[in-house]
TrEMBL record:
Residues 674-686 have a biased composition (Basic and acidic residues). InterPro entries: AAA+_ATPase (IPR003593), ABC1_TM_dom (IPR011527), ABC1_TM_sf (IPR036640), ABC_transporter-like_ATP-bd (IPR003439), ABC_transporter-like_CS (IPR017871), ABC_transporter_C-like (IPR050173), P-loop_NTPase (IPR027417). It is a multi-pass membrane protein. This is Putative multidrug resistance-associated protein. The chain crosses the membrane at residues 81-99, 134-151, 209-228, 234-253, 318-341, 353-373, 714-734, 789-811, 870-902, 971-994, 1001-1020. SUPFAM superfamilies: ABC transporter transmembrane region, P-loop containing nucleoside triphosphate hydrolases. It is found in: Membrane. The keyword Transport applies.
């Protein structure tokens, strides 16, 4: 959400005049700024009005809607996203087509004709006038200049259009994600959507450049074929034939690339999805010591991905080889045929042939073939986008339409009439069965029931998230919703609460008070303007729950749906929330409260008891009091009186008595105890500074070490040296091929001249015998024509062989680099401390594993190959030109110095802009991920437009950075082309001014110089692209070198007994704990306590007291000072893996990973199936598992196909299976119903009777039968003794906490503690 920061930096392109635009002069100020300072986000210009994400999204959405409309009218026809894109951007692509046509079909085809006329002037015995030669030379330079201008503006235009298409598609994807149904959302991993936004849409950037080559290249080929046939006859057709033999091969490899691209995308999706799960559940992975099985899963996914990527890379290597050899082989074929048929070679013909073959190779072998590959890959991406766009959508017809219709009534808040619904249409069993419910305006409805009974599904049906099979729902007015698993996004606390609504200070303060957030906001460093981390990482579970509730309450609505908001808070806060917020503040509103806190049932106007998706019974409290309906699940634990299981009479527990027994107990004990909290006048925090945790940006130029790091990651430097030598050798042989062709042509021209002169001399009467002898001697010293041809053949064969070997070796090496870099980064991430994940958003980390690894896998090797090949080709061209005339060194050196200076200025700006582009992409991913996590909440609030607008702002920022990048790149390229133009002018006119040079040498020098235009720009661009793509390596290396947790493995000299811990004694000696560096305050301070073997210890305290930090200290998840001993062994001296695998935990937020149930319980495959089934029977999950699949039952991402209670039971099964001596429960029963709570408590008492159990709890009833209770306050131990002993201290903290539950409740808790105390005394 928007944190209030706005930018306004007008784009200079908007008001630039035509000359400034033509010459890219408007970019000069940006280069100046980029050279003087490191560019930051504030330096980014506003996007152009036509580039705004909202504008582009609207345009494309309109066309897509049109496609859907046509599809609905003509059944069977599928909507085409490709057609929608084509219609949206038809004008832009037409303009590009005009530019491309003029450049490729007119200018580039006239240049060889003028070159032929010019070279005719230098032919021995030529009759061409010098004035004409100057005109031909001037024509070549002028045409080159026009071509240069058109090409530069075509490229920048193509990239710009590609960016606009990408932005439009991203906007469309995001809008679709806001409409995904819950079923579609469950089947679509967030990682896949991130991949669509990072890799798939990026295809549009390149395809725009090659799109028009699909029709201009064949036209160009037909025209070139005609010219060659006219000039060279059938010999010309031989060369054409060679090109057309290579092109289909390249087209086929292009198709293969698209096939592999689809496979790569699927496998990348899987790896990214897996990484998303790992990052989300990293704390659980660390506490269970599951790093190795997850590393293995990632390794398998990565290997599968790279197996396909390397095939694509080899194809690309073959393609790059053809780029060097196609023109040369075609020309070789034509010249060999000409010579074989007895034709003479001359420079004015040979170099025209070469120029035409260069045009043909560029248009067909490069542009056309690359276009086929790019279009094929883009079509794959469009297909994937289309599949996503066709996913099932959320239908709000269940609620939204009737909501307006029934509002006139004004009496009924919510009406559910015989509704039946199921999540998955293919499943026979209904989730909700024939539900009838009437919630009158202003009433409080309590919904209770066991795990999986359909409580949350009922709310989802009211929200319209669960599609109805039958029945209808009427809702009067607006809805507000607080979800069971609190959704908090990365923004300020205030933004999380007001959620885009207008800020009303008075209402806001009151909401903060009734939601018990005043104290928390005072403790936060910047009050409600404090930024919370991604997914609320910097907040406790209770704080997240109350912020989520505050958001629901702040939203002015008529119906409030509250899905168990009281579970994550302690008893006192829970009572405050219920009385002050739900009952009092919302008293005139319709409230439907799903809860497991049965003590509040008496205050409900209506109670609904669900069982297996149907209403077992419903009515007012008094009506149900006389009911004889059984509700056995609730009787196993009496939540209302906070009695433990042992306090319920054995007979009652066995017989599962009728529900009225339970309700009478509630009736007797539930006495309202209103909180006496008075509103605190809070000073409004200033909004001037919002402290953000922005992504760090490595400033300045990339360190040389990044290149060394990349090359070393693949192999040793000897291999790098070998590949470098192969590159040099390939270019050397290529240049020798050109030189030999020119030398041979010159020799053949001289041979013809000598023969003609000797022939003329023989016929003349006054022949000069000395001159004749000289001609004859020179003729005898020449090699035969066929000898020249054989040498030429050998050079071409050598070129082909070396080029292929070079390409394959290089790509194999790059894949090893990529594989090793990914593995190193993953190993660093999985082994780093939890602090890293608290301070880095998941979007930021995912950006490394999706976009950056994608760049290292595919874009970087392509850029290095391109840059190396083209830079070497440029060097070869210059060397060949200098071999003709050494004086060309002077302009080359001068321009070389200018190039170096301009490149230095460009790179400094470009790298900064590229960094900003990478940094501004992360918020797009983070925003999307957060949206998918909180989709139900977003839709319940109708906040889709606000979130859409926020996404557009993020994307506009990225578009601005990208537009700056492409324009600065093209301005740099244009500058280089201007210098190349000057060099061509110098070379061309120098031959005319000096004279006396043979045509072969002139042709060689001019053709090599003309090749520099475009090539020089592309080479410099690609060398800069290498530097920019190295940013991805730099970002990967940055995460590769994050510090790992200290002492992961136990030192060899320190032996940990296999049976350790054998008793379970825990000693804390002067223990301090802090999160982060030394500047951070301690959250645990001077802890000194001993926990005896097999002791059951309850840990209580208010929010922020340090309860969960105690668990973090025991697992060493943060920086611990002091000593923690387990059975006499200092945990700081043994490996973290050894420590953590000997402690079991049932966490507050149960985490399941996608895969099978077996992998979630036993990822190491250490236990036989019968043991897994035994623990599932112990936790009563066996009946919930599919009979056909058994242990291979599918677990969806995040375990979303299991209820929260079922997930908690899976965590309990894990703990039983590990059978450790120490068990920790971190508010493990907070989100479960009383029946599941009872089951967990009973299982713990039986299965962990001989273990040390530490229970962090909000609900005091769960720890009143503990051996001792540890009371914490602001990170310190304030009390530690048996609960009965602590209750004797009338001024004590624990006594105060018990009294806050209410008089009758306090008596029950005291009685429980006393009975347990005396029972222990008798035993001892």
């Amino acid at each position: 959400m928007d944190t209030g920061k706005t930018r306004d930096n007008p784009n200079p392109r908007e008001n630039a005049n035509h000359i400034s635009v033509l010459l890219f002069w408007w970019t000069v100020d940006l280069f100046k700024k980029g050279y003087r300072k490191n560019l930051v986000e504030e330096d980014l210009y506003n996007p152009l009005k036509t580039d705004a994400s909202e504008y582009l999204g609207n345009k494309l959405e309109k066309q897509w809607e049109q496609q859907l409309k046509v599809t609905r009218q003509s059944k069977g026809k599928k909507p085409s996203l490709l057609k929608a894109i084509a219609l949206t951007f038809a004008w832009e692509y037409t303009i590009l087509g005009v530019f491309h046509t003029i450049n490729d079909l007119v200018i580039r085809l006239i240049q060889p004709i003028l070159l032929g006329y010019l070279l005719g002037f230098f032919k021995p015995g030529s009759k061409t006038r010098e004035e004409d030669a100057y005109l031909f030379g001037g024509g070549i330079v002028v045409l080159t200049m026009i071509s240069m201008l058109m090409f530069n503006h075509f490229v920048v235009g193509a990239f710009h259009v590609g960016m606009r298409v990408r932005a439009a598609c991203c906007s469309l994807i995001y809008r679709k994600s806001l409409r995904l149904s819950r079923t579609a959302l469950g089947e679509t991993a967030a990682g896949k959507v991130v991949n669509l936004l990072s890799n798939d849409v990026s295809r549009f950037d390149m395809v725009s450049i090659f799109l028009h080559a699909m029709w201009t290249a064949p036209l160009s080929a037909i025209i070139v074929t005609y010219f060659l046939y006219v000039n060279a006859g059938y010999s010309g057709l031989i060369g054409i034939g060679i090109v057309f033999l290579i092109v289909p091969l390249q087209v086929y490899t292009g198709k293969l690339t698209s096939i592999y691209r689809r496979r790569t995308a699927i496998r990348t999706d899987e790896r990214v999805r897996l990484m998303d799960e790992i990052i989300s559940g990293i704390q659980v992975i660390k506490m269970y010591v599951w790093e190795k099985p997850f590393a293995k899963m990632v390794s398998v996914a990565r290997k599968a991905e790279l197996d396909v990527v390397i095939k694509t890379s080899y194809i690309r290597g073959l393609f790059m080889s053809f780029q060097i050899i196609t023109t040369r082989i075609a020309l070789f074929g034509t010249l060999a045929t000409l010579v074989t048929f007895g034709n003479k070679l001359s420079s004015d013909k040979v170099f025209v042939y070469q120029s035409y073959f260069t045009v043909l190779a560029f248009s067909m072998s490069m542009q056309f073939v690359r276009g086929v590959a790019e279009i094929a890959e883009t079509l794959v991406s469009i297909k994937r986008l289309e599949e996503f766009m066709m996913l099932e959508e959320f239908q709000d017809s269940n609620s939204q339409q009737q909501r307006v219709l029934s509002r006139v009534d004004g009496i009924d808040g919510v009406i559910l009439s015989r509704i039946t619904a199921k999540w998955n249409a293919s499943v026979k069993e209904n989730t909700l069965k024939c539900i009838d419910l009437l919630a009158k305006r202003g009433t409080l409805i309590a919904v209770i029931g066991q795990v999986g009974s359909g409580k949350s599904s009922l709310l989802q049906a009211i929200l319209g998230e669960l599609t109805l099979s039958s029945g209808y729902i009427n809702i009067s007015g607006k809805i507000s919703y607080a979800c069971q698993e609190p959704w908090v996004f990365a923004s300020t606390v205030r933004q999380n609460i007001i959620f885009g609504r207008p800020f009303d200070r008075r209402r806001y303060n009151e909401v903060v008070r009734v939601c018990a957030l005043e104290r928390d906001l005072k403790q936060l460093p910047y009050g409600d303007m404090t930024l919370v981390g991604d997914r609320g990482s910097s907040l406790s579970g209770g704080q997240k729950a109350r912020i989520s509730l505050a958001r629901a309450v702040y939203n002015e609505a008529d119906v409030y749906l509250l899905d168990d908001p009281l579970s994550a808070v302690d008893t006192h806060v829970g009572k405050h929330l219920f009385n002050d917020c739900i009952v009092s503040y919302l008293k005139n509103k319709t409230r439907i409260l799903v809860t497991h806190q049965l003590q509040y049932l008496r205050d409900a106007d209506h109670i609904v008891i669900l069982n297996d998706g149907a209403i077992e019974t419903q009515g007012s409290f008094q009506e149900l009091l006389g009911s004889q309906a059984n509700y056995a699940q609730l009787l196993s634990l009496d939540e209302s009186t906070d009695l433990s299981v042992e306090d319920i009479p054995e007979a009652e527990r066995e017989t599962n008595g009728p529900i009225n027994n339970l309700l009478r107990q509630i009736s007797r004990s539930s006495v309202k105890s209103r909180s006496s909290d008075k509103p605190v006048k809070e000073k409004e925090p200033e909004q001037t500074v919002v402290h953000t945790n922005l992504e760090a940006s490595s400033k300045g130029t990339s360190k040389e070490s990044v290149y060394i790091e990349y090359f070393r990651s693949g192999a040793n430097l000897c291999v790098v040296f070998f590949i470098g030598v192969m590159f040099l050798l390939a270019q050397t042989v290529g240049s020798i091929t050109d030189w030999w062709m020119a030398y041979w042509t010159t020799q053949e021209e001289l041979r013809e001249f000598y023969e003609r002169q000797i022939s003329l001399g023989t016929q003349a009467l006054d022949s000069n015998s000395t001159m004749e002898n000289e001609y004859y001697t020179n003729l005898q010293e020449m090699l035969s024509t066929y000898t020249y041809l054989y040498i030429y053949t050998g050079i071409v064969v050598m070129l082909f062989t070396i080029t292929i070997i070079r390409s394959f070796a290089f790509y194999k090496f790059c894949m090893r680099c990529s594989s090793n870099l990914h593995n190193s980064m993953f190993n660093s991430i999985i082994h780093t401390s939890m602090r890293f994940f608290d301070t880095n958003s998941s979007g930021r980390i995912m950006n490394r594993f999706s976009k950056d690894i994608g760049s290292v896998d595919e874009l970087l090797p392509k850029a290095i190959m391109d840059a190396s090949q083209i830079v070497l080709m440029m060097a070869g061209s210059l060397v060949v030109a200098v071999s003709v005339n050494l004086y060309f060194l002077i302009p080359i050196v001068v321009m070389g110095l200018l190039f170096w200076f301009i490149r230095k200025i460009y790179l400094k700006t470009s790298k900064n802009v590229k960094r900003l582009e990478g940094i501004t992409k992360s918020p797009v991913f983070t925003h999307l991920t957060a949206t998918l996590q909180g989709l139900t909440t977003i839709r319940a609030y109708g906040a889709q437009n606000i979130l859409c607008s926020e996404f557009d702002k993020h994307q506009d920022l990225h578009s601005s950075a990208w537009y700056m990048f492409i324009t600065t790149s093209q301005a740099f390229g244009f500058c280089l082309d201007v210098f190349c133009l000057i060099f061509i002018g110098i070379v061309t006119f120098s031959f005319l001014l000096i004279g006396g040079t043979l045509g072969g040498n002139v042709g060689l020098a001019i053709t090599q110089s003309m090749a520099l235009v475009g090539m020089m720009q592309w080479g410099m661009r690609q060398s800069a692209e290498v530097a920019n793509q190295m940013m991805s390596v730099e970002r990967v290396v940055e995460y590769k070198s994050v510090p790992e947790e200290p002492l992961l493995e136990t030192p060899q000299d320190k032996n940990v007994p296999r049976s350790w811990p054998y008793q379970g004694r825990i000693d804390f000696e002067k223990v301090y704990l802090r999160y982060g560096n030394n500047s951070e305050p301690f959250v645990l301070k001077n802890l000194n306590l001993s926990i005896q073997p097999r002791e059951k210890v309850g840990i209580v305290g208010r929010t922020g007291a340090g309860k969960s930090s105690l668990i973090a200290a025991l697992f060493r998840l943060a920086d611990v000072e002091g000593t923690i001993r387990i059975d006499g062994i200092d945990t700081g001296t043994i490996g973290l893996h050894d420590l953590r695998k000997h402690i079991s935990i049932i966490p507050q937020d149960p985490v399941l990973f996608s895969g099978t149930l077996r992998r979630n319980i036993d990822p190491f495959d250490m236990y036989p199936d019968y043991m897994l089934w035994r623990v599932l029977i112990d936790v009563e999950l066996k009946d919930s598992i599919s009979d056909t699949l058994g242990l291979d039952t599918h677990v969806a991402e995040g375990g979303c196909n299991f209820s929260v209670g079922q997930r908690q039971l899976v965590c309990l099964a894990r703990a039983i299976l590990r059978s450790n001596r120490i068990l920790m429960l971190d508010e493990a029963t907070a989100n479960v119903d009383p029946q599941t709570d009872s089951l967990i408590q009973k299982t713990i008492r039986t299965k962990f009777a001989d273990c040390t159990v530490l229970t962090v709890a909000h609900r005091l009833n769960t720890i009143m039968d503990s051996d001792r209770v540890l009371v914490m306050e602001v990170g310190t131990v304030v009390e530690f003794d048996h609960p009965h002993v602590l209750l004797q201290k009338k001024e004590g903290h624990f006594y105060s906490m018990v009294q806050e539950t209410g008089h009758v409740m306090a008596e029950q808790l005291s009685r429980t503690a006393e009975e347990c105390y005396h029972s222990q005394q008798r035993i001892s």
